[in-house]
Amino acid sequence: MEAASLYPYFRKYPAISTDTRNIQPNSLFFALKGERFNGNRFAAQALEKGASYAIVDEPQADGDERYLYVSDVLIALQALARYHRSQLQIPVIGITGTNGKTTTKELIQAVLSQQFHTYATKGNLNNHIGVPLSVLSISPQTEIAIIEMGANHVGEIAFLCEIARPTHGLITNVGRAHLEGFGNFEGVKKAKGELYDFLAAQRGTLFLQNDNPTLREMAAARSGQQLVTYGFSPENSVSGELISADPLLHIQWTTPDSDGHHAVHTQLTGAYNTENILAAISIARHFGVPPEYINRGISEYTPTNNRSQLTKTEHNTLICDYYNANASSMAAALENLRTLHADQKVVVLGDMFEMGDDTHEEHRKVVEAALLVQAVRTLFVGKAFYEHRQQAGAEFYETTAAAKDALTQQPIQNALVLLKASRGMAFEKLVDAL
Is the same domain home to 135 and 247? Predict the structure, then answer.
């Protein structure tokens, strides 16, 4: 069944389900396969739970007409999303980057939604399955969509661009992450730059952090895209500066056509988020959102996803930033902690995943950088960090459970605590001990 033939079913039943544990009534169930699951085996259950049709690629026993057969369910899902996108005549903002893309996406939605009906990727559904699901979630009422795109191999962003077809785009930054898949930093640049390639070919609009030499060089290597710049230098379309970050950010910003500066208090921590805020401001100004609406959206945005999230417990103040971690985000988090005022600082860092052959060296660099913070306690958690346990002045634990035991036996009181790790380290289990 081709996408054009499947589309009328989608128009009638626009909700998409891929998991029988949360089937939506009157939805289309796509029986996706993975290494450890086969959605075809649950197609009948999906129909029993209220799905209107099940899209399958394996024969079903009962011959129910509600089964729609395709040669490959994943390819059908992607093709349907591509077809749906072709029916939409709205701006679509594509966003990628090594760090900060989810926070920036949410900030963009926070400011644009002050004036427009927007849709943005939920959570981090930003891969070969998540992007099609996100595109298919764009309703007829949507005026602007923001689609987050992630990758850990060259070619993935280009593939996702062909589905989402962004008219506007943004790379937050390019750092040393997913080196196992990209090979090296040049591989990261090539992969993220595929968004720039698409925008250049389509003569789209690129929002550029013009004070970032890597991004500036990448943009200059392509032609055809329209540039809107932001950053800290006054010549940018939007320029701003950090007024204070102790620990929540207070910034001010201006544009060439502004009458003076606009100051805004945020509920974000981490000085590195300043440029993410400026990115959102530049996009909002491009679409004509008034400054007062922009500031309202930024000030009301509260992170709830363990990214730059400030949490106060009975005993301590925590900087919860353990949804993801890589070499560049670790460095930024440590530098931010170093600049903050606190009677006592504690550093708790967990392993960075997907670093490939650079794992040992990159973790060694983080250990050295963390010790420069001069915290009252510094804990490293995970097998990669444990290889550096000979380093003096710190505690090393192979597992999160072992670190929790240590924090329980030697409690921390009245401290500012940085919790930073890759998601797989499950650092949320440490919060109860702090």
Answer: yes
Please give the Cα distance from 30 to 18 (Å, whole number): 5
The CATH number that applies at residue 325 is 3.90.190.20
Among 395, 418, 405, residue whose Cα is nearest residue 340:
418
Regarding whether 149 and 259 lie in a shared domain, the answer is yes
Q: Which helix (H) or strand (E) holds 112?
A: helix 101-112
pLDDT digits (tens, 9 = 90+) for 187-243: 888 889 999 999 999 999 999 999 999 999 999 999 999 999 999 999 999 999 999
The predicted-structure confidence for 82-117, as pLDDT tens digits, reads as follows 999 999 999 999 999 988 899 999 999 999 999 999
Query: Residues 275, 334: one domain?
Result: no
**Encoded tokens for 274:** 């300043």
Three state DSSP letters for 221-250: CCCCCEEEEEECCCCCCEEEEEEEECCEEE
pTM of the complete model: 0.88
Domain holding 357, by residue range, is 309-433
